[in-house]
Design a protein that fits this description.
single chain, alpha+beta, three-stranded antiparallel sheet
Length: about 300
């Protein structure tokens, strides 16, 4: 099946043909369930392919058209072939470098930062946001983009997520002493309704002291004992020097923000590959600007080039 997917080209009808029940069929007209069956894929391989490779959050995709699944699997292997040992990229010095990079670039284009300022009020006039008050100061604005913690009254709780941040002195066992890894435990393998996510980074990413590793294990809460739910992930880590467990609410905005120009993101979910977060950012961009983000317009220039 993977060979078929690798050769699949949406622009080349010659690559669409598969055989189902001894009949030539167009792959664009079948579900993922039918595609798996056509190649005799077993249930365990389906779990790994659908959740750890295609990064589906549940099994709803199986009954849907296979085109999206094919694109997801191709993306995984195209990324793997491009970057070598892993299809994932992780910034040196941690994820904090992403907002820091944004802040530097924003400053070049005239952005203003008010650091260490509490947000005391989102100032509204005639149903639209006009500013943000911090103490006696008010920063005027035409729109606000924020996470649910700033305006919880305009959000609904849709669930909870449990996370364990673990400090290790060794690589995750059975990963060939890898200095980083991502493990997704498919829901069916542990009799759950959602997956368990394990991510480990280390001193090689400049996020920990020499010879130390940082691992996170997370899952959507389904029972009254959240920490027990992530035990299958914790068991993969081996000896843990120290563990920090938290349970947080999953919040979503109650409206799209177009009328009042207050655009609220969703809470971080249990995933550790950040696909859902990226989709949320694109959705906020669409709501705030009225159009989709055009990646073809992105210029790959350095900050030094921008300052020249």
């Amino acid at each position: 099946m993977l060979e078929f997917i690798q050769n699949f080209d949406e622009d080349d009808p010659k690559t669409w043909n598969i055989t189902i029940s001894n009949k030539p069929t167009c792959a664009k007209d079948v579900t993922m369930e039918q595609l798996y069956a056509a190649f005799g894929v077993d249930h365990n391989t389906i779990d790994v392919t659908g959740h750890a490779i295609a990064l589906h959050l549940n099994d709803d995709y199986i009954k849907k058209n296979c085109l999206d699944g094919i694109k997801r699997i191709k993306l995984y292997f195209d990324s793997l072939s491009r970057y070598g040992k892993s299809p994932y990229l992780y910034p040196l010095y941690g994820l904090g470098e992403l907002p820091q990079g944004f802040a530097r670039l924003s400053a070049i284009y005239g952005g203003t930062y008010m650091l260490d300022k509490p947000c005391d009020e989102i100032v509204m006039e005639d149903g639209k946001v006009v500013g943000v008050r911090s103490g006696e100061e008010v920063a005027k604005c035409k729109m606000v983009i924020c996470d649910p913690s700033y305006i919880p009254e305009k959000c609904n709780q849709v669930g909870k997520v449990v996370r364990a941040i673990c400090i290790l002195k060794h690589p995750v066992p059975n990963t060939n002493n890898s200095l980083s890894c991502q493990i997704i435990i498919p829901q069916n393998q542990v009799q759950r309704k959602s997956d368990i996510y394990v991510c480990c980074v280390s001193y090689t990413h400049q996020v920990a002291a020499k010879q130390f590793f940082l691992a996170t294990v997370s899952a959507t809460v389904e029972t009254d004992n959240p920490e027990l739910e992530i035990k299958p992930g914790l068991d993969l880590l081996g000896p843990i020097e120290q563990k920090f467990v938290s349970v947080d609410d999953l919040m979503e905005p109650t409206d799209d923000g177009i009328c009042n120009q207050v655009f609220i993101s969703k809470s971080y979910d249990a995933t550790t590959h950040f696909e859902t977060t990226c989709l949320d950012v694109l959705d906020i961009y669409r709501r705030a600007t009225g159009g989709d983000f055009d990646f073809s317009q992105v210029k790959h220039t350095s900050l030094d080039d921008e300052q020249c």
